[in-house]
Every structure is written in C-alpha cells, then in structure tokens.
C-alpha cells in the first residue's frame, strides 16, 4: 500500500480514497488550509502502477486559488476523470504510487540553450490553439531537441513549423512523493 512521504502526496492520496468511497471532493476553505498550501500555484498529480505511469493531470496555471485544493482536484481527475486512462479501481490501491509536482510560474523562453530537460519542463503553444506541457526529467528525454519534438508531437503541432512561430515557456517543479 502506498505510504506518502510528504503532506502533498498525502493530500492527493486521501482525496483519491475519499472520492472512491463517497464520490465527493472535499475542498477546504482558505482559513482551514495551512499557510504553505495557500499559495496560488499549479501542480500535476501523477499516478503510477508499479513503474508505469497510469495517469497524470494538471495545468500550467492553477484553477483554484490555493495549492491544497489544486492538489485535490488534480488527484481526483488523474484517478477517475482522465479520458486518456482507465479510472482507478479499489483493487488497484495496493499497487499504486503517486507524485505531486508543484510548478513554478512558466516564463517565456528567449534562448533555447537555456532549457535543461532534466531541470526544466516546457509549455509549447502554436497560433492554432494547440499546446502541450512536458514535466522536467521526463523518461527518455535528455536533450532540448527531444523535449521540443515530444512537446510538438503531443500538441499536434506540425514538426515543420518554425520555432520562432511558437510560444515556448519553461518552468521548474518540486516533486513530492
């Protein structure tokens, strides 16, 4: 059974358990949230079955004013509402682990040489509204070119689109397990 090592991972895991039993998301009011979790930050919650990524949900910009509620929202969506993966079943709880990646605010990239795939994630957008986000230190992505190509492919952006026609932002994350 998953044993969270941080309060961030515990919030996510508890949100999944509660939703599994009651189909409810228990958001807290601002005055009930500890100061460190009141920050207006985005996060991604990733659920793993063994060493395989089962589901990952988040946004580059927060949808809730407090990180605490952002974690709950993304944990429940990753577990039960992600159209790209099967909903989590009670029998799988003993075989999952999860991480919460808290994102810094994405900043425009002016020089591609400043992107370090093990340190920076990227958000890429084109003028047609296609976009994708890749977290830092993603599996098999060890160069800036691989990172950009993976982001383009994920977003459905034509690989021949000149780089100067794309909006590229980078960010860092703090990972909590």
> How many whole angstroms does the radius of gyration measure?
17 Å
Assess the beta-strand content as a share of residues: 15-25%
Secondary-structure class: alpha+beta
Indicate the mean pLDDT.
Answer: 96
**Helical proportion?**
10-25%
Please report the number of helical segments.
3
CATH superfamily membership of the largest domain, which one?
Answer: Hypothetical protein ph0010, domain 1
Poorly predicted ranges (pLDDT <50, ≥5 residues)?
none
> Do you know the CATH topology of the largest domain?
Glycoprotein, Type 4 Pilin
| Total number of domains | 2
Distance from N terminus to C terminus (CA atoms, Å) equals 14 Å
Specify the CATH architecture of the largest domain. 2-Layer Sandwich
Q: SSE string, helix = H, strand = E?
A: HEEHEEEEHEE
CATH class bucket of the largest domain: Alpha Beta
Please list the strands of the largest sheet in the order they lie side by side: 2-1-3-8
Main β-sheet, in a few words?
A: 4 strands, antiparallel
Shape: globular
Give the tally of β-strands: 8
Provide a descriptive summary of the structure in words.
There is one protein chain. By secondary structure, this protein is an alpha+beta fold. Helix 1 (7-22) crosses helix 2 (67-81). The model has no long low-confidence stretch (mean pLDDT 96). 24% of the residues lie in helices and 24% in strands. It contains 3 helices and 8 strands; from the N terminus they run αββαββββαββ. The chain has 2 domains: 7-103, Hypothetical protein ph0010, domain 1 (Glycoprotein, Type 4 Pilin, 2-Layer Sandwich), CATH 3.30.700.20; 107-176, Hypothetical protein ph0010, domain 2 (Dna Ligase, domain 1). The chain has a 4-stranded antiparallel beta sheet with strand order 2-1-3-8, with helices on one face. A 4-stranded antiparallel beta sheet has the order 4-7-5-6, with helices on one face.
């Amino acid at each position: 059974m998953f044993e969270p090592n941080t309060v961030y991972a515990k919030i996510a895991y508890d949100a999944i358990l509660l939703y599994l039993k009651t189909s409810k998301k228990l958001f807290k009011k601002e005055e009930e949230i500890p100061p460190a979790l009141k920050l207006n930050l985005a996060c991604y919650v990733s659920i793993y079955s063994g060493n395989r990524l089962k589901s990952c949900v988040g946004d580059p910009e927060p949808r809730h004013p407090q990180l605490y509620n952002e974690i709950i929202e993304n944990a429940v969506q990753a577990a039960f509402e992600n159209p790209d993966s099967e909903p989590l079943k009670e029998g799988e709880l003993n075989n999952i682990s999860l991480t919460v990646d808290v994102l810094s605010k994405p900043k425009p990239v002016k020089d591609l040489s400043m992107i370090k795939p093990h340190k920076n994630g990227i958000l890429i957008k084109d003028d047609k509204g296609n976009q994708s986000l890749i977290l830092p230190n993603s599996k098999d992505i060890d160069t800036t070119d691989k990172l950009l190509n993976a982001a383009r492919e994920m977003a459905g952006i034509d690989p021949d689109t000149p780089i100067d026609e794309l909006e590229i932002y980078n960010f860092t994350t703090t990972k909590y397990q």
